[in-house]
Write a structure and sequence with these properties.
Bound molecules: uridine-5'-diphosphate
CATH topology of the largest domain: D-amino Acid Aminotransferase, Chain A, domain 1
CATH class of the largest domain: Alpha Beta
Helix content: 25-40%
Number of helices: 6
Number of strands: 14
Oligomer: single chain
């Protein structure tokens, strides 16, 4: 089914298929952090991220959020709709952590009264800088209608995922989404939803069950990915 590799990113490869509107995404075990400065491998990560992304995307579809997901082909490979990625990282936060805590000089773990939403401009050469709505418009990265649609979809995703993970004994701290345009111009959720792109803390112990274990050399990286996948499976 795979024709040729058309793109290789940090964690995934993308292949064309016989259908120009469909692509195959293949998840790797490669891990990077700090804009590619730190590199490594997390054994089994690709299999987990593929399966977790697909399970969560199907839940989101059922909740009324359109996604690029078509069907899983194998442990690491998934058939998706071809989109043009909107070059924004859409970050939703429920609790302070990571770059938020660093930027504002606050501790991690502050529970917000309402989720926050921010955009970063997807641009490796510039290290994905934070970007305002008006600058998104100035650079013609998205239209005003697309910005509103993306924001409301991202908050809906937060509502759904927060509730789902809470049922697994996991706190959804923050996460990054990417959106794409289908051939007809409509916006769908794309990319992945995994421990690489979400902060997930054990609700009881606060233990980190996500890529921060790799970023911060906390050890037990593979075990954390396996544990979060076990919780997702147990939720059915
Ligand atoms: N994130 C991501 N890719 C990025 C930057 C952030 O998936 O290039 C995710 C990250 O895993 C976390 C959330 O977005 O769940 C917020 O990340 P933050 O802005 O705190 O940046 P970080 O501390 O990861 O550099």
């Amino acid at each position: 089914m795979k024709k040729e590799m058309i793109y290789e990113g940090k964690a995934k490869k993308v292949y064309s298929t016989e259908d120009p509107e469909q692509l195959i995404v293949s998840y790797k075990d490669d891990a990077t952090a700090f804009n590619g400065l730190k590199k490594g491998t997390i054994a089994g990560k690709g299999v987990i991220n593929n399966q977790m992304t697909n399970a969560l995307m199907q839940r989101l579809e059922a909740a009324g959020v359109p996604t690029h997901f078509i069907r899983q082909l194998s442990e690491r490979d998934t058939l998706v709709k071809r989109v043009t990625i909107v070059p924004l990282e859409v970050i939703v936060r429920n609790i302070s952590a990571g770059s938020f805590a660093k930027r504002y000089g606050v501790e991690e773990g502050i529970i917000f009264d309402a989720p926050t939403l921010e955009f970063s401009y997807k641009n490796d050469a510039l290290a994905d800088p934070l970007i305002t709505d008006s600058h998104v418009l100035a650079l013609k990265l998205a239209t005003p209608e697309e910005i509103e649609r993306i924001k409301s979809m991202a908050l809906k995703v937060n509502d759904e995922l927060r509730r789902f993970w809470a049922g697994c004994g996991v706190t959804l701290v923050d996460f990054k989404l990417e959106f794409g345009r289908l051939a007809d111009g409509s916006i769908v959720l794309a990319d992945e939803i995994s421990p690489d792109t979400c902060r997930l803390w054990d609700s009881r112990t606060g233990e980190k069950l996500d890529k921060d274990r790799f970023r911060r050399d906390l050890g037990g990286v593979e075990d954390a990915y396996r544990e979060i996948m076990r919780r997702l499976r147990a939720a059915g």
